[in-house]
Design brief:
With 136 residues, the chain is α+β, with helices and mostly antiparallel strands. The chain has a single domain, classed as Archease, Possible Chaperone, Chain: A, domain 1 (3-Layer(bab) Sandwich), CATH 3.55.10.10. It contains two helices and eight strands, in the order ββαβαβββββ. It starts with a strand and ends with a strand.
Length: 136
């Protein structure tokens, strides 16, 4: 599950999941739901593999979202499907989506940057919680 919360001129993204892999996958979907209002209409036509090294979960989470932003901006792609495997050395992810098509994809927010402000990744009694602030 992911939800958006207001934060001055930015937007916050809060993700709750039962396990770490799902937390990162839901963060990807939550991120793109801010970019494309009708995220469920994004077809899984193009597939990419992402590998990110890192041991600190908060930095890895930041790097994950930052990489998604970079790929989206440079390749003009939007994504709707995420399979993520997090281990003690980093993550490997399979992401699927398609070229951004303004005639089909209802653009919502332009995310300019992922921020470290308020960044949180923590294990709770019944799962995982992450929060991140996005500069829009």
């Amino acid at each position: 599950m992911y939800e958006v919360f207001e934060h001055t001129a930015d937007l916050g993204l809060r993700i709750i999941a039962s396990d770490l892999n799902t937390l990162f996958a839901q963060a990807g979907k939550g991120f793109f739901s801010l970019v494309v209002e009708n995220i469920d209409d994004v077809r899984p036509l193009e597939h990419l593999t992402i590998k990110i090294e890192g041991e600190d979960l908060e930095y890895l989470f930041f790097d994950w979202l930052n990489e998604l932003l970079y790929i989206s901006e440079t390749k003009h792609l939007v994504f709707s499907e995420f399979t993520v495997n997090v281990d003690k050395t980093g993550l490997t992810a399979q992401i699927s989506g398609e070229k951004l098509d303004p005639s089909r994809h209802m653009l919502d927010h332009e995310v300019k940057a992922i921020t470290y402000h308020g960044l949180l990744v923590t294990e709770k009694e019944n799962g995982w919680l992450a929060e991140v602030i996005l500069d829009i």
